[in-house]
Amino acid sequence: MATLEGKRVVMIIAHENFRDEEFQEPYDLLTRLGARVEIASTSLDEAKGMLGKRVRPTMLLEEVDPNHFDAVIFVGGSGAAGYFNDSRALGLARRAYEAGKVVAAICIAPVILANAGVLRGKRATVWNGDFVRKLEANGANYTGNSVEVDGKVITANGPRAARAFAEAIAKALSK
Q1: Helical axes 20-32 vs 162-173, angle rounded to 10°
Q2: How many CA atoms lie within 13 A of 14 on its CB side?
Q3: pLDDT digits (tens, 9 = 90+) for 126-165
Q4: How many domains does the chain contain in total?
Q5: 3 in a structural domain
Q6: How far from 167 is each of 69, 80, 132, 154, CA to CA, in Å?
Q7: What CATH number did the domain enclosing 75 receive?
Q8: Which range of residues forms the domain containing residue 90?
Q9: Residues 40-64 pLDDT 10s
């Protein structure tokens, strides 16, 4: 895989109950390939994953300027639901998309992109059940694939897709 030297990425995590592997797989791959990865949340205090992972965010969600990043990644886990109607998260997703950045979300986090209007007319995937309906209600074309890439928008359906999700982001950043 190509080097990502000079690329800047921000990963948005819930302060409580982000999904550990959905954070760790992309973080490890992107940093290994040379990207600089920042972690944003609603607090700079230590964030806790659903399986016990502890991460210290490097910036607050409201400080994220998508123009300073090549990719914006929303990490899933039950805590991501807190961003479904968060104006800061929705605005960030919309601004990043409009600026032509790679915009990615995994597990239930694609609902954030859907609610921001980013998935209208796009192929996308999400965890399951009610989340599928939320995507479709906002104009997404749900595919059911584990990872879906539509232009610079990348979605994935959960923890088992974390590695392929990370690889899809790296590939998009290397173009």
Answers
A1: 40
A2: 25
A3: 999 899 999 999 999 999 999 999 999 999 999 999 999 9
A4: 1
A5: no
A6: 18, 21, 23, 11
A7: 3.40.50.880
A8: 8-173
A9: 999 999 999 999 999 999 999 999 9
Within-domain flag for 148: yes
Measured distance CA(134)–CA(111) in Å, rounded: 6
In the block, which residue shows the tokens 């192929």? 123
Annotate the chain with DSSP letters as a single string.
----TT-EEEEE--SEEE-HHHHHHHHHHHHHTT-EEEEEES-SSPEEETTS-EE--SEEGGG--GGG-SEEEE--SGGGGGGTT-HHHHHHHHHHHHTT-EEEEETTTHHHHHHTTTTTT-EE--SSTHHHHHHHHTT-EE---SEEEETTEEEE-SGGGHHHHHHHHHHHHT-
Considering the domain boundaries, does residue 44 fall inside one?
A: yes
